[in-house]
């Protein structure tokens, strides 16, 4: 931490500063695809485990199922996901990407690589790998769910 009148210097502040900047830039980039970061995250989660239930996605995201349903409704309306009757319990929907959803996800992956390259442009490949390893150790120690942005927990909360 800096002294009075000095900018903060701690690693936690810098992680938060770069993280907020990167999240904002990412949101701007995915907006070009007509998506929001939570929608992208949900597409990625469905692609990683096709056929999973809305409830399991909500649990992984750390949000109430009704919030996932609202995002799924948007993605369904955009033609990117489909809900199929569950195999073992037809009351539960199995989530799958449509062909268009898979295409958007491929575009999203290219966009994410470009975003990573832009945010980490000041580092050489070895430094990037080292930074990623260090940040992964911090994420693991803090008990963060791999691949799930903690900002999802804010979805649907009332602003005060």
Automatic annotation (TrEMBL):
One of its GO terms (biological process) is response to stress. Transmembrane segments: none annotated. InterPro entries: HTH_MarR-typ, MarR/SlyA-like, WH-like_DNA-bd_sf, WH_DNA-bd_sf. Residues 1-140 form the HTH marR-type domain. GO terms for molecular function: DNA-binding transcription factor activity. SUPFAM superfamilies: Winged helix' DNA-binding domain (SSF46785). It comes from the Bacteria. This is Winged helix-turn-helix transcriptional regulator. It comes from Dactylosporangium aurantiacum.
């Amino acid at each position: 931490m800096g002294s009075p009148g000095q900018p903060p210097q701690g690693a936690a502040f810098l992680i938060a500063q770069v993280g907020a900047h990167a999240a904002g830039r990412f949101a701007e980039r995915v907006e070009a695809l007509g998506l929001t970061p939570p929608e992208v995250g949900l597409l990625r989660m469905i692609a990683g485990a096709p056929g999973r239930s809305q409830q399991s996605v909500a649990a992984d995201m750390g949000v109430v199922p009704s919030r996932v349903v609202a995002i799924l409704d948007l993605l369904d309306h955009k033609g990117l996901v489909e809900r199929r009757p569950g195999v073992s319990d037809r009351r539960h929907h199995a989530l799958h990407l449509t062909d268009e959803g898979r295409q958007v996800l491929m575009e999203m992956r290219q966009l994410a690589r470009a975003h990573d390259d832009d945010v980490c442009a000041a580092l050489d490949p070895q430094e990037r790998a080292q930074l990623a390893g260090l940040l992964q150790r911090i994420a693991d120690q803090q008990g963060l769910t791999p691949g799930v942005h903690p900002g999802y927990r804010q979805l649907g909360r009332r602003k005060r």
